[in-house]
Specification:
- Two copies of one chain form a homodimer.
- Chain A has about 240 residues and is of the alpha+beta class.
- Chain A folds into two domains: about 5-170, Beta-Lactamase; about 180-235, Orthogonal Bundle (Arc Repressor Mutant, subunit A), CATH 1.10.10.10.
- Chain A contains ten helices and five strands.
- Chain A has a five-stranded antiparallel beta sheet, sandwiched between helices.
- Chain B binds a DNA duplex (30 and 30 nucleotides) through helix 7 and helix 9.
Chain lengths: ~240, ~240
DNA sequence: TTGCCCCTCCCCATTTTTGGGGAGTAGAAA
DNA sequence: TTTCTACTCCCCAAAAATGGGGAGGGGCAA
C-alpha cells in the first residue's frame, strides 16, 4: 500500500511532464490505482466552480455539486479554508443539518465515508484542495493517512504547481501593483477605519487619501471602495 | 550532501515534537549544519515584521532588515508573493535601484550570493518564506536545489504548520457563522454592488438588506460594512 | 533631458450609507 | 410546546463616501 520513493518519483515526473489537464487527469488516475483508494481529487476552489479540477469523482456528482452550490455548505471546503494542515474529514464540523444532508447525498453518489484533504494556497488568494477518499474503517484509514501524509502533501503541491501553470491569469506580472500609499490606504480601510481616521493616521489630508483610494479602485477595476478592498485582499495585495 | 530519507524523518519528527520557537530554532540550526549551507531561514512575512521567524541570519541583519523596512523592497519577498513554486533568487527581478542596493547591503551582512526560497501560505492570508542561502557558483547551486527541492518543500510545510500552532489567533473555531442571507448580502457587497442593486437582486427591500448587513457586521465584530466584508473574506465565510 | 508615476493639497454638490428605533411570520431546535 | 433564530418590512435624520474637476513638487528610468 505504501508508495515507495521510486514510485513517487516516477509519478511526480510524469506529472511534471504533463502539459494539459488531461495529462493531470491521467496521473491522478494512476495515483488512485496505485494507492488503491476509491477517489483522488484535485480541485481548484473558486466561486466560479471547479473548472481547473481533475479527479475520479463521477461526472454526476461533480454536476450535482455545482448545481446545488455545495461549495457553500461543504464542510470539507469550509474546514480546509480555515486550516493549513491536512485534515481528516472526521475532524470537521458535520453538525449542521445542511452538512449532514450533504454527506448523505455524497454517499449516494459514490463518495466514500473516509476522507483526507490537503488545503493548498497560491498567490492572489488561490485556493485548492487535494483529497483522498475511500470507504473503510477508522483504524485502516488512520494508518493509511499517517503513512502517506508526507507524500500526499508533496503530491498536492505538485498538482497545484501544474494547475497554476495552466492558468495564465494567475501568472505574475499581469496586474498593476498598488503604490505603498495605496496599500496603506486600502489596508487601513479594510481594518475598519473611516477616511477621516485614516487621513489623520497617515498624516495626510482627507483629500489626498481620496486620491489614493480612487487610484487604487481604478487599478483594481473596482466599482467602489468596498469592492476594491475585496479585490485587493483576494489578489493578496493587502494583508489584513 | 543529500538528505537521506531517514535523516529527513528524524528531523521532521524533532520539529513535530518541538513546542516553542526555540525548538524550531534548534531544528533549523540542525538542518543548516546538515545541509552544509550558509543560512536557513523560516520567516512569517507580515506587515508587522517577522515576529514568528527563526533562522540563522545574524541579529544585525535581522535588525537592519526591520529598521530599513526592506520587506517592501526585498525582491525575494515580492517575487515569492506572486509565485507558488519555489524560486531561485537568480530568477527574481533585481533590476530596480533599491533592489541592487538591498543585495549589496545583504552581502555585507553575511548573506550568501545564492538563494532558494519557498513561499508558503496559510489561512487568512498568512504568508511565510522558507529560504536556503549559501555562497557558491551557479552550477553547484543548481545541483543542490534540484536534489533537495522536494525535501525542502516538505520541510517548509512542516515549519509553517508548527508556526501556525503557536499563533492562537489563526486557529479556527469560536466564530459565529453567518446566515445564508447574510452570506448573500456580504458576497454581493464584496463584488461591488450597491445596497439598492443587491436588494433588487435578492428581491427583498433595501431595509431588509440593511438588517442583514448590520447583523453580519455585529457577528463579525466589524466597525463598518467594508470592515465586515474584509473580515468575512479573511475568515473564509465568503468566497469572492 | 524628458516623460512617467508617486505624493500632496483643495473646491463643489450629490448619492449612499449608517444609527437606532419597532414588529410580525415561519421554521427549526430543545 | 416553547424558544430561538432567520427572514421580512417600515420610519427618520445625520454622517460618510462619491464623482469630477485642477495643480505643483519630487524621484526614477529610458
Amino acid at each position: 500500500m505504501l508508495v515507495t520513493l521510486d514510485n513517487l518519483e516516477s509519478l511526480l515526473s510524469a506529472l511534471e511532464q504533463s502539459d494539459s489537464l488531461e495529462g493531470m487527469q491521467r496521473v491522478i488516475e494512476a495515483l488512485r490505482a496505485h494507492y488503491g483508494v476509491a477517489h483522488l481529487v484535485y480541485h481548484w476552489v473558486d466561486s466560479r466552480g471547479d473548472q481547473y479540477g481533475c479527479g475520479t469523482y463521477s461526472d454526476a456528482w461533480r454536476q450535482k455539486y455545482l448545481d446545488e452550490t455545495y461549495l457553500r455548505i461543504d464542510p470539507v471546503v469550509q474546514g480546509c479554508y480555515q486550516r493549513f494542515h491536512p485534515v481528516d474529514w472526521k475532524r470537521l464540523d458535520w453538525s449542521s443539518k445542511a452538512a449532514r444532508e450533504f454527506a448523505k447525498v455524497a454517499a449516494e453518489y459514490g463518495v466514500g465515508n473516509q476522507g483526507f484533504s490537503i488545503p493548498i494556497r497560491g498567490p492572489n488568494g488561490q485556493f485548492a484542495l487535494f483529497t483522498v477518499n475511500d470507504t473503510c474503517d477508522d483504524r485502516t484509514w488512520a494508518g493509511f493517512t499517517q503513512s502517506n501524509r508526507r507524500d500526499l502533501i508533496l503530491i498536492a503541491h505538485y498538482f497545484n504547481e501544474k494547475a497554476l501553470e495552466f492558468e495564465p491569469a494567475r501568472q505574475p506580472g499581469q496586474q498593476q501593483p498598488l503604490s505603498p500609499r495605496e496599500v496603506d490606504a486600502m489596508t487601513l480601510i479594510a481594518v475598519g477605519y473611516s477616511r477621516a481616521q485614516i487621513a489623520d493616521r497617515l498624516s495626510i489630508s482627507e483629500h489626498t487619501l481620496r486620491v489614493y483610494i480612487e487610484s487604487a479602485r481604478f487599478k483594481l477595476g473596482a466599482l467602489n471602495t468596498t469592492h476594491a478592498v475585496a479585490r485587493a485582499m483576494s489578489r493578496g495585495l493587502i494583508v489584513v
